[in-house]
Amino acid sequence: MKIANVSGELLRALFSIVIATSLMACGAGESNVLEGNRTGILHYGNGAEPQGLDPHVVTGVPENHLIRALFEGLAVKNPITLEPEPGVAQRWEFSDEGKVITFFLNPEARWSNGEQMTAGDYVWSWNRALHPETGNLYAYMLYPVKNAEAYAKGKIKDFAEVGVKALNDTTLEVTLNAPTPYFIQLMDHYSTFAVHPETLLKFGKMTDRFTPWTRVGSMVSNGAFVLTDWALNRHIKMAKSEHYWDRDKVSLNGVVFYPTENVVSEERMFRVEQLHYTAVVPLDKIPVYRERPNTPYLQSPYLGTYYYLVNTERPPVDNVKVRQALSMAVDREKLVRSVLQETAVPAYSITPPDTLGYFPPQVFRYDPDKARALLAEAGYPNGEGWPGLEIIYNTQEAHRKIAVAIQQMWKSELNVDITLANQEWKVYLNSVSQRDFQVARRGWIGDYVDANNFLDLFITDGGNNNTGYSNPIYDDLILQRAPRAQSREERYALFTEAETMLMEEMPIIPIYTYTSKHLIHPSVEGIYPNLMDSLNLKYVKLHPEQTLSGEVK
Amino acid sequence: MLRFIISRLLQAIPVIFIVITATFFLVRAAPGGPFDAEKVVLPEVKRALEAQYKLDLPLYEQYFAYLTDLAQGELGPSFKYPGRSVNEILFSGLPVTAELGFYALLIALIIGVTAGVLASLKPNTRQDYIPMSLAMIGICMPSFLLGPLLVLVFGIYLEWLPISGWGSIPGDKILPSITLGAAYAAYVARLSRAGMLEILSQDYIRTARAKGLPEWQVVSKHALRGGLIPVIAFLGPAFAGLLAGSFVVETIFQIPGLGRFYVQAAFNRDYTMILGTTVFLSTLIVLFNLISDVAAAWLNPRLRSQLSGGGK
Fold this sequence. Notes:
The complex is a heterodimer of chains A (553) and B (312).
Chain A: H1 2-25, H2 32-39, E1 41-45, H3 61-70, E2 75-77, E3 84-86, E4 89-95, E5 100-105, H4 119-130, H5 148-152, E6 164-168, E7 171-175, H6 183-186, H7 197-203, E8 225-231, E9 235-240, E10 254-258, H8 263-271, H9 286-290, E11 297-310, H10 320-328, H11 332-338, E12 345-346, H12 368-377, E13 389-394, H13 397-414, E14 418-423, H14 425-433, E15 439-445, H15 452-455, H16 472-481, H17 488-505, E16 508-519, E17 524-525, E18 541-542
Parallel strand pairs in A: 1-10, 13-14, 13-15
Antiparallel strand pairs in A: 2-3, 4-5, 5-7, 6-7, 8-9, 9-10, 11-15, 11-16, 12-16, 17-18
Chain B: H1 2-29, H2 43-52, H3 59-71, H4 86-121, H5 126-140, H6 143-157, H7 174-200, H8 203-210, H9 215-227, H10 229-244, H11 247-252, H12 258-268, H13 271-299, H14 301-311
Helix pairs in contact in B: 1-13, 4-5, 4-7, 4-10, 5-7, 6-7, 7-9, 7-10, 8-9, 10-13, 12-13
């Protein structure tokens, strides 16, 4: 009896705790989105905590979004066409057959402390970006500039020999090694941005990587927004800059970036209106969102290709016919439909379609009969005598699914046995760079919209070639002839020639073109689908009257 | 007692030293380095980076330099987050993880002890089977399943609780604390049931009952103190485990704690960060084990007298 009393008491206590816990929950209040729409603040899912905010030190997609909100380059991209348009530079002129570019800086361009931006700031910043002690991973973005590569490699010690000069406070003259049609585009890449010299020097040497100049209260930047709060792994807050030259066009009062590493959690945050915008969308949620009227789901082709690297020096894939057979036996349409749920585009070449008007040639198609014939010619009729082949990929469910699908396709079409091996990320990177594989999964995301960015991967001994592929004619097309082309048409014809050659020799097996995938709250205007997934927050507006309709649960 | 504590502390030093040394050389032996990336790093850039992080020095020099810095409490700059020191990252995440661990432990204790004691009072009845079966489920259910389930029910269907963050929206600490605490609650329940059952069958409990004490006094005054010794002994390692093992919960709920940095550091080959977190957490584990041993000894009259006898 007494024991029953005790347990009754305890049960009651437990029950009260549960009730109290539930009550504490109530009053979660206005959602981020509603509050943001009222106050003009965008809540942005940014994928990961950034490594940092120093444009010459960090690399990565989340970093890119943050840095491009805080800083602005000499030129920016039109958010719809991606063609360059004025940024810090009001205009630019080409001379000496495109080898010299003169940038005329906007006299209204200001640092966030109110000081005027000068051409000298660019000379100082490019010295930092290229200096051999800085360790800038993207130093090569400036290699088209005369003597820049030699300076970065320590062969030239005097920066005055590098082709960048301040003619006066607002005129910057850049001399290139050769005409570089995509050079203006590179001015929108953070590695070519200017930093504020006095601010950096206050905290250390020009080439220091570790100083806290990028912290709240210290950072001086020149973009549409300024840094106001940075709580590690929590959020980064920015407010509209008072000194930005084009501030009248900026509609947002501020942006909050969240390090949304877990894609599933990010989608849930979007559902309860904690975010206006998500960095990605979990694959299994995409069909659900697609079916909604006025879907917040936005998918568009992305400047990236998913492919398999083939080690052209290891049997059996040292034989070009084996490589062609394998590639022709992959049913990319089916793969995209079943495994990828239509979130990618089948690829038959390395350059994504419509890369600033360039469409790659389609040299081959899915053709199992031809594939079997080629395999027989290579000495493995119906897979007889096949020595085995291994695909390596970095440990991730998505890569495994694709590898399994391809393994089955090769087995059923060609009757060849394939083994799969997953490796931890850094181990995988090591295997690829040491060329310790037969076939390896790979992806390449372009840094600028130009076929050159994909095709120059496969020049002889290129750092990212990793296949052992080497063809002097190909090298000549990419390194010598294309840069000297007189027109866009001529240049694209040379690229087509090179890419045809590449797809005939098959050092890689292209699989699909990436897409960018976001959930965007209906109240957000000014985010346009484009190949670079490039977003200029300056153009974003909020319309509070638009709400998420039809709950997805 | 003091002697016991001092000798345990002295034993801890070589343990931590071995942990440091093993970790230092193991991370460097792992394939791939901190600067390997998908896009190749130019040799000239890699050289500059290695110089900035002193990786160009011979390994033994790096090791002694690290020990020297460590002796001064400096854990070095992070490789992954240039511009931040490991100390800074640790101390930004620690309060959050510690708070999360504390709430989780509190929940584990309240639920676990209540369920365990209830079960022990009427063994092999429904009052025993129901909480103990729930406890078994709690042990079996991983937090990466429980967390999203709780989020779905309380965050998305019922809209009672926020589903992510830490300290930014009222109530956002509840779901992560419950998720992390649940598995430990289950352990605590089983431990306290076993402990209580053993004590309740002792002679002195029968004496207490024979004296005519009300049952709640028998339980709270006489039985609990002995019955919970296994739980107390479990608390130290449990708290250390909560600190080191909060990675999953921190990821699900987007919590800015230590766990996420700890696990990612290994993937990133962020040498200084791996070492920093390992040294820090191993020190904590040693310390918490010591505290719980001392507490258990103090609660156990026989051990207590032995130790204080030994100390004199």
